Amino acid sequence: MSMTKENAQAYWGENLRIIITYMAIWFVVSFGCGVLFVDALDQIQFFGFPLGFWFAQQGSIFVFVALIWAYVSSMNKLDEKYDVHE
Amino acid sequence: MSLDTLTFLFIGASFALYIGIAIWARAGSTKEFYVAGGGVPPIANGMATAADWMSAASFISLAGIVSFIGRDASAYLMGWTGGYVLLAMLLAPYLRKFGKFTVPDFIGDRYYSNTARTIAVICTIIISFTYVAGQMRGVGIVFSRYLHVDINTGVIIGMAIVFFYAVLGGMKGITYTQVAQYCVLILAFMVPAIFLSVQVTGHFLPQTALGATLESGQSVLATLDALSVELGFAQYTAGSKTTVDLFFMTAALMCGTAGLPHVIVRFFTVPRVKDARVSAGWALIFIAILYTSVPGVAGFGRVNLIETVNGTAETAASGVANTGVKYEDIPEWFSRWENTGLIKWEDKNNDGVVFYSKTDANELTVNRDIMVLANPEIAQLPAWVIALVAAGAVAAALSTAAGLLLVISTSISHDLMKKTINPNITDKQELLYARGAAVVAILVAGYFGVNPPGFVAQVVALAFGLAACSVFPAILMGIFSKRMNTQGAVAGMVVGIVSTMAYIVYFKFMGGTKDEMWFGISPEGFGTVGMILNFIVAKVVSSMTAEPPVEIQQIVEDIRIPRGAGAAQSH
User: Fold this and answer.
1) Mutate which of A12, A31, A57, A73 to test chain B, going by most B C-beta atoms within 10 A?
2) For the complex shown, is ipTM > 0.85?
């Protein structure tokens, strides 16, 4: 591995920041909107769904898919930046 | 053509396809047998993962659960999909870079300990056997219902097919068969789902149709809420579980999903770290197609069922909606499913009118599985759709069974024989052990399929709880904490497993009552508590003991960098 120790640490640090950002969104849509605040959100109607119910049964799943692909693209960029891609 | 001939043709054709693929994709080395040579394209791996993951439970039972418990079932929908976010970001890329064959491989090597490896092997085997018994039973039930053979004969046919492609093809055969099985099962789920949503709402997509407005001017969900309340059921869009319980259940199912060995091992089969991330993305897209349709199928199915049985203003015996329909006015599917025992009608007040409610006046017992199995008939769809559903259910059960059996045989030949008992065996001998172990595993699974233990439904909680409290935290700390050592990991796993098992066994098998549950957490959610205990104990114990050797810390640094994964394949 031609990478210096500082570079490796910087890469890992940025990787962790990316993970934490996306995991925060993951937590908010599923445990937040779908569990903790579901009753409050249910007061709002969203295309015929109570909003909290929609998040709990469908919305969170759409967000999960989007999150993984956003993560893939962020990591590809990061790998290029630090020249660790394959 | 009669329904029986069509069903036979559909299932027969799908079996011929699976066997053809198995012959084409024979495995010649352990690497091909365990991880398909590490050369599976990410999109194919995504499909295979989706088929591997979606079992008879997802295909047959999930829509039924949602249909009958409404919002409380959200934990399953979010838990069984959200786990893939954890896999994609926290586990899969690093495990792929680590580049070995199994989950116990990682735990054993990272914690430089055969004790840790053995604990992981035991967890893997318990989780996989728990799961596989249900699949074999599922195959048997589908055969018996659609082809009128004995359930046991159905189990044996299923065993023979899995035997053929799992033993011959190993991971390579299984992967490409699963790709085909995904196509069959998703078609089989979506065709009736789309038919149904067009029929009920005029909308094409089941995802949006659930919110659509009906002729009455109300949305489907509002109609369902009103019907449910009128009949004494809980409101469909409101939950009866406490927030705390729902929270812990969702978390346990998510972390359990991410910790299931047969899912994790799928990410060892792609060529690069990048492909591991991408294939998690594909897998979740393929899974989400089915999962986001489930609430629609569940909702329409429930409305259809209530309106058929209790009647609308036109069909009800009294002319008032929701008061019951005369037995002879109910469509033919009703009596057909009565014969299978999935629906039971008991005319309590002898008026010849069927009535369904939550109150004492109820005369109907409905099995949840009917929502998917009988839906095409309730909606009066053509016979080929019904035959397709049968082929789809078999595909869902077989694909999951094959993935699990492979994990069991790998654990025995690789983790126990090669890594623990006799490291000197050659690649060829190891392959022989792997095939032998697969044969034994199929026989044991078949035995459980023929003689199902009465507690299959209960032990599913055990599989997810176990994965969440042992495998998932051990891998996570192995990647993200350089300081984590053998003592910490082993102590954490032991505490996690013992606490979770004790709680589940007490409440599921020893008659523990609801009031005794800690903070109202149901056994399905206790894996989360076990996991938290695991993290705390591991952290405390590792901080009091020596840090791991330099070469282990080097491994941890190494798996964090993607480049070089291709070279690190062999052992």
Assistant:
1) A57
2) yes
